[in-house]
Amino acid sequence: SQQGEEDPQALSIQEGENATMNCSYKTSINNLQWYRQNSGRGLVHLILIRSNEREKHSGRLRVTLDTSKKSSSLLITASRAADTASYFCATALRGGSEKLVFGKGTKLTVNP
Amino acid sequence: ETGVTQTPRHLVMGMTNKKSLKCEQHLGHNAMYWYKQSAKKPLELMFVYSLEERVENNSVPSRFSPECPNSSHLFLHLHTLQPEDSALYLCASSQAGIYNEQFFGPGTRLTVL
């Protein structure tokens, strides 16, 4: 199976609620990145967390990393309809080069 | 806009055709990537060019042929494709190095008849 797996595969919430997505991976990493993709478009980088970091914030986004459990979570607070998109985690493997390994993504729908 | 452009945005081709996808980045990056995105599958890395040298070729069939004439341009030449090659093809660029984010183009939606 692939390196990164997001959970859940799909998430539907109301505007104003928080959305939490999880990512698990299998091998040691240098860093983990989260990307967002609107339907049929390219991916947009959201946040990067290094293997020696445990938490990072950017605006309404909060990312945590637990290397002992090989997992990460992305929290979007006070969600908006415009947050509707697919969210992917990508891992940069230890000992690797510029290669990122992506998961299948979580499809988030925020209902107005 | 991310600074990475791709043309064409949509392409329909027969299995005997030859076509090329083009990617251009205006960000001064020195690494470029081709990815394939199919429904219900993870994003698949196809090729990586770093400092204009191909550093990754993920067992991609020879009917896909990449070309990187300079650090700003990347092509994917297609010939005798199969229907299962229908997908969204994404180009990305970054500064070479593992701690750098990748910037993606909007993709080319390819349909092989």
Task: Write down how many β-strands of chain A occur, each being a DSSP E stretch of 2 or more residues.
Answer: 11
| Estimated share of beta-strand residues of chain B | over 45%
Please report the two chains with the greatest interface, counting residues with C-beta closer than 8 angstroms to the partner's C-beta. A-B, 26 and 30 residues
Radius of gyration of chain A (Å): 13 Å
Low-confidence stretches of chain B: none
Q: Quick one: overall form of chain A?
A: globular
Largest sheet of chain B: 7 strands, mixed
Give the overall shape of chain B, derived from the CA principal axes.
Answer: globular
Low-confidence stretches of chain A: none
The N- to C-terminal Cα distance of chain A equals 36 Å
Give a nutshell description of this structure.
The complex is a heterodimer of chains A (112) and B (113). By secondary structure, chain A is mostly beta strands. In chain A, 0% of the residues lie in helices and 58% in strands.
Describe it for me?
The complex is a heterodimer of chains A (112) and B (113). In chain A, 0% of the residues lie in helices and 58% in strands. The N and C termini of chain A lie far apart (36 Å). Chain A has strands spanning 5-7, 10-14, 19-24, 29-37, 43-50, 55-58, 61-66, 71-76, 85-93, 100-102, 106-111. Chain A contains no helices and eleven strands. By secondary structure, chain A is mainly β. The radius of gyration of chain A is 13 Å and the shape is globular. In chain B, 0% of the residues lie in helices and 57% in strands. In chain B, the strands form two sheets. In chain B, strands 2, 4, 5, 6, 9, 10 and 11 form a seven-stranded mixed sheet that branches. Chain B starts with a strand and ends with a strand. Chain B is mainly β and 113 residues long. The chains are: A mainly beta (112), B mainly beta (113). Chains A and B meet through strand 4, strand 5 and strand 10 of A and strand 5, strand 9 and strand 10 of B.
